[in-house]
Amino acid sequence: MKIDLCVLAAGNARRFCGNKLLCEFKGKPLIRHLLDKIDPTLFSHVYVVTQYDQIADIAREYGFAIIMNDAPDLGIGYSIKLASMQCQSDAIMFVVSDQPFLKEDTIKKMVELANHEDIIALEYDHIFYNPMIFPTKYLDDLKHLQNHRGAKQLIKGKSIVSVPCDALEIVDIDTREDLNTLM
């Protein structure tokens, strides 16, 4: 099964008060913690959606395609829409760029479970989290997102295959306090 991967890295990080993805975290910029875990051989295409030239430059170092989001104020839904419009595969996986503890094995396990019918989602304590994989039958719905709630709003009532994870994998960094606490 062919899967495209979309790294969502276009947010304004208002609660962080700056570009958190470029902040040093455990010896390297936060964005690199995720990008280092992506095995491009698992995916047909890897896209990084961003508004930042510096993030685009880093993503290019990994050989990933860039989708520039010129309207980040429209929310994560708009970034998802932009990536969905590029999807050329059987499914698309969305991963947020501020989950530094997401494991490479978890990503691989999700890809292995991907199919043409089910949404694949990370699960902790009976709650679904990013990353998520959507078969192309959901592309029209994904292309119409334009808000701050993301693709999670589409999963209610759908068939979902969950991939259990530990509590640390779902941790994302939203504030400078988060960053300092996790150091």
Automatic annotation (TrEMBL):
It comes from Faecalitalea cylindroides. Gene3D superfamilies: Spore Coat Polysaccharide Biosynthesis Protein SpsA, Chain A. Transmembrane segments: none annotated. This is MobA-like NTP transferase domain-containing protein. GO terms for molecular function: nucleotidyltransferase activity. InterPro entries: MobA-like_NTP_Trfase, Nucleotide-diphossugar_trans. It comes from the Bacteria. SUPFAM superfamilies: Nucleotide-diphospho-sugar transferases. Residues 6-156 form the MobA-like NTP transferase domain.
